[in-house]
Amino acid sequence: MTSLTIVRKIAARPSIVFDALTAPQGIAQWWGPDDGPVLAAETDLRVGGRFRVRFRMLDLTEHEASGEYLELNPPERIVMSWRWLGDEDADADAANESVLSFDLRAHDEGTELTLTHARLATEETRASHEGGWSGSLDKLQRMFSQEARHEQA
């Protein structure tokens, strides 16, 4: 098993970033590695509650993940199980389930977000998730950047 950690600075307070990470309308704006759309985002924001996100990439492939919220400490921490749905390589057991966490810490310019994706099965899986999460977090950063707001005005 291996893990992945990515740290980003987001130009918004932790409570606002927390909402973007957990509310379906927020997730719809940043989830996915490229500019393809989020097709469905569902959250039951409580420990033991489930989430599901389906997105389409620009190459027209669709991907869906789901899991369960394991820990919620607004606006500082989210921990959830993670499993790809419809993966032909995935067995029905929990061996293919990984753990995703977001830690949010206030700083002068907003929030320092630390994403950790643990219990990834192989280095290949880790590399694939690194590309996907990097693209998603790029979109999350842009969502809150001053420059993006000025460009849209």
Describe this structure in words.
The protein has one domain (2-146): START domain (Alpha-D-Glucose-1,6-Bisphosphate, Chain A, domain 4, 2-Layer Sandwich), CATH 3.30.530. Helices cover 29% and strands 42% of the residues. The chain has helices at 14-22, 24-30, 123-144, 146-152; strands spanning 2-10, 38-43, 50-56, 62-73, 77-85, 98-107, 110-120. It has a 7-stranded antiparallel sheet. A hairpin with a 3-residue loop joins strand 4 and strand 5 (77-85). Helix 1 (14-22) crosses helix 2 (24-30). The longest helix is centred in the last third of the chain and has 22 residues, at 123-144. The radius of gyration is 15 Å and the shape is globular. The N and C termini lie far apart (46 Å).
| Estimated helix fraction | 25-40%
Contiguous uncertain segments of 5+ residues: 88-93
**From the alpha-carbon coordinates, what is the Rg to the nearest angstrom?**
15 Å
Question: How many angstroms does the end-to-end distance come to?
Answer: 46 Å
Largest sheet: 7 strands, antiparallel
Series of H and E elements: EHHEEEEEEHH
What would you say about this model in short?
With 153 residues, the protein is α+β, with helices and mostly antiparallel strands.
Furnish the topology, listing elements before pairings:
Blueprint: E1 2-10, H1 14-22, H2 24-30, E2 38-43, E3 50-56, E4 62-73, E5 77-85, E6 98-107, E7 110-120, H3 123-144, H4 146-152
Antiparallel strand pairs: 1-7, 2-3, 3-4, 4-5, 5-6, 6-7
Helix pairs in contact: 1-2
